[in-house]
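Q: Hi! First time doing this. I have a protein sequence and I read that you can turn it into a structure. Is that right? Here it is:
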Amino acid sequence: MSEGALQKIYFSAPGVFCSAGKNIGELWSCVCAADNSGIKKTRTLSGKEFFVARVEDQSLPNVNARLDMKIIRMEAAALFQIEDFIFEAKEKYGSERIAVCVGSCDNGSELSIAGHRTFFEQGNFPLTYTLENQCADYVATFVSESYGLKGASLAFTTACASSAAAISKAAELIRSGLADAVVAGGVDVASDTVLLGFDALESVSLQKTNPFSKNRSGITLGDGAAFFLLSRDNLLKSGVPVILSGSGQSSDAYHITSPDPEGSGAADAMQKALDDACLKAEDIDYLNLHGTGTRLNDSMEAKAVEKVFGNYRLLCSSTKSETGHTLGAAGALEAAVCWKLIQESAEGSAKVPLQAWDGERDTELPDLNFACGNAATKVRVKNCMSNSFAFGGSNTVLILSAEDSYAV
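A: Yes, that's right. Below is the predicted 3D structure, encoded as structure tokens:
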């Protein structure tokens, strides 16, 4: 391995904001209780109703942003929780050595939809409207501008793998010597446009999502934001240092919206992550599944898990059953759950993220070891894998490890 490949990449504590929790503590309590009460029925502008895991606007802070919209207020709420790490990194490394990597599928839809509505009604855009209102980069630019960061500022829009890809790229920037620290994560909103778009694909469940059940019927969408500061030094003041021990990516390009039904691309990304971390399948203590609740995703993912892990009864769950599918933010949000699991396990807790579902197994799928009901872990959780599989076969898998259990 090269010296860069040997460089450990440390996670700060996460900043999170979603319907299942306004910080990592609240989110952890929610997923350990299989509490999906944050998913509520919502009426869209079209009149159609869906179950959605939305963040209430009144819970969001005001922000001093050039483009003020819900997605930016959500981002600011999550970033506020990690800004002490950002300030420490600026003092330690300098602003020129801190980069930004943000994943999102939204391109300012709140402002662009309103602007286009005015155009169609009056024949002109509002005077305040510019093309920047619908630029995909602003979720990253906002971070750089807010904290005066001068390193690379990159936006990732690889659908549901966006923030996982952003975290993977953050590690590459540090290992390549292009940055010493990176603000990395993702943010997304379940706008009416997104809801109606997924509904047109016949992907939205009429009930709360029910991942891997024989009765599953689709996804439940949600708002979410999750961020870390990744750095070449451990900046945590307490708790177990957690590192990104491995990441793997693949692009099976089977279909623009449908995954490879055999899960070949997903399995490839999982195996690449294991190889990158120099770990064996049985070294993984918990797997956070992509688990969207659609017929096709859950089927192919179960097959992929079987291909990689064989008969090893890996503990796993889909926390989208509590948070909803937060699209471009999902990878970072689920990495935050894995980070917290490693911390809690090191302190002696046996709690694990549970899957909220009806428990009706699909006998046509491989028999996975889902964490549900009274599930707990009898071993210390040291290595967690998190799956993110997106439209177009854009797959990213992350492995988070406790540093004291991992030797490079």
